[in-house]
Known about the structure:
- By secondary structure, the chain is mainly α.
- It has a single domain (4-113), classed as Serine Threonine Protein Phosphatase 5, Tetratricopeptide repeat (Alpha Horseshoe).
- Helix content is 76%, strand content 0%.
- It is globular.
Amino acid sequence: MxxxxxxxxxxxxxxxxxxxxxxxxxEAAQAFRAAIAADPDYFEAHHGLIRALRDAGRxxxxxxxxxxxxxxxxxxxxxxxxxxxxxxxxGHIPEAEAAAARARxxxxxxxxxxxxxxxxxx
Length: 122
C-alpha cells in the first residue's frame, strides 16, 4: 500500500499538472510545493515545480528548484537535464552546457551498467 504522504503528493502533483495544462503556472507551482511538503522524496513533484516556475518566467527560482533536485538525486540524468533547461532559459549558457554534459555522462554510466544484449543474428 502506498504511504499516505505519497498519496497526498500524487494528488497534489496531479492538481499541479492540471493547473499547468490550463495555463496557470504559479498556481501549479503552489500545488507542487505542497506535494513536496507532503513527501519530499516524491521526485515527480520536484520536476513539476521546476517546469511550473520556468513556465511562469521565474527562471532563477526554477534553477534553485532544479539544484535542490540534483542534490536529492545526484545520479539522475533527468534532474541535470531540467537544471540545464532552466539555466538556458535564464541565459546562463555555459552553466547550462555543463549541466547538459553532466546529464549525458550520467546517462552513459547508466547504459554501461546495463547488461549487454547478445546479437541475435544467426
